[in-house]
From TrEMBL:
Enzyme Commission number(s) of this protein: 5.1.1.7
Marked site: Could be important to modulate the pK values of the two catalytic cysteine residues: 162, 211
Cellular component GO terms held in the UniProt record: cytosol
Signal sequence, renumbered to the chain: none
Xref: InterPro entries: DAP_epimerase_AS (IPR018510), DAP_epimerase_DapF (IPR001653)
Catalytic activity: (2S,6S)-2,6-diaminopimelate = meso-2,6-diaminopimelate
Keyword terms of this UniProt record: Amino-acid biosynthesis, Cytoplasm, Isomerase, Lysine biosynthesis
Family that this chain belongs to: Belongs to the diaminopimelate epimerase family.
Site (Important for dimerization): 272
Description of how the protein assembles with itself and partners: Homodimer.
MF-aspect GO terms: diaminopimelate epimerase activity
Active site residues per record: 75, 220
Source organism per UniProt: Halothiobacillus neapolitanus (strain ATCC 23641 / DSM 15147 / CIP 104769 / NCIMB 8539 / c2) (Thiobacillus neapolitanus)
Protein name: Diaminopimelate epimerase
């Protein structure tokens, strides 16, 4: 079976995008891991699947798989690429595109500049919603790691789970050491994405993210939202806030009210079109 796909990226967070409306595909974790492999496959951080809508208030269903083959709830950079994909491929003529995800409905808006603004929905802080195991809800939490070190994290869900640590300097932050330990920490039963945030000023941060199921990426859209939301909640940041990730810059806006959505704006880029023969049944 031959599958047509598009390789895309949002600030270097890269994706294989497949239209599963106009072609039949079969997915399994082993196949996804093989495609994601940067030496033996196509190479990507996440696989994005375009499917028909499941509800009357959405135009598409947007499914997301990490490089480790696991299906996840949300992906911010992927959402911008999804918008450009369905619009540029003529799957819709709408520039305001509501889509259904595993964590609910989000709305993608293609701006005149070509950038995409995503209404990511409301951040969630209730521990059971993240999920994060703790006795009571707080703004920040102490976390003891397997190597005995102690850190302070904020825990937030942007549809997917995030832990945010504030660091002096993202260039020297121990991302590859702490990232896997926090990702697999027993207090995060579904594992977690780990953001390392350096505050530059009240409307500007630098950020590196060790992503659940993909490792450190050049950018993480939901991670950018989680970091800004955490900073605003602790009165360290103001909206809108610029987020410099290793692959470029995003803008994130949030009123600070839990009932309001987080808005994330940034670019989305196609790299090449390809086709691959599915080798695993
Ligand atoms: N790169 C993404 C997040 C992708 C999913 C994440 N790794 C998870 O497991 O939740 C983004 O841009 O948000």
């Amino acid at each position: 079976m031959t599958i047509h796909f598009t390789k895309m990226h949002g600030l270097g967070n890269d994706f294989m995008v497949i239209d599963a409306i106009n072609q039949a595909i079969e997915l399994n974790p082993e196949q996804i891991r093989q495609w994601a492999n940067r030496h033996f496959g196509i190479g990507f951080d996440q696989l994005l699947i375009v499917e028909p809508p499941k509800t009357a208030d959405t135009l598409f269903t947007y499914r997301i798989f990490n490089a480790d083959g696991g299906e996840v709830e949300q992906c911010g950079n992927g959402a911008r690429c999804f918008a450009r994909y369905v619009y540029d491929k003529g799957l819709t003529t709408e520039k305001e595109i509501p889509v259904g995800t595993a964590s609910g409905r989000i709305v993608l808006h293609i701006n005149d500049s070509g950038d995409v603004t995503v209404d990511m929905g409301r951040p969630m802080f209730t521990p059971t919603n993240i999920p994060f195991i703790t006795e009571c809800e707080a703004t920040s939490y102490p976390l003891t790691l397997d190597d005995g070190s102690e850190w302070v994290i904020d825990a937030v869900s942007m549809g997917n789970p995030h832990a945010v640590l504030e660091v002096e300097n993202v260039d020297t932050a121990p991302v590859s050491h702490l990232g896997p330990m926090i990702e697999h920490h027993r207090q995060f039963p579904n594992r977690v994405n780990v953001g390392f945030m350096q505050i530059v000023d009240r409307q500007h941060i630098r950020l590196r993210v060790f992503e659940r199921g993909s490792g450190e990426t050049l950018a993480c859209g939901t991670g950018a939202c989680a970091a800004v939301v955490s900073g605003i909640r602790r009165n360290r940041l103001d909206s809108p806030c610029l987020v410099d990730v290793r692959g470029g810059r995003l803008s994130v806006a949030w009123t600070g009210k839990t009932q309001d959505s987080v808005l994330m704006t940034g670019p989305a880029q196609s790299v090449f079109e390809g086709q691959i023969t599915q080798t695993i049944a």
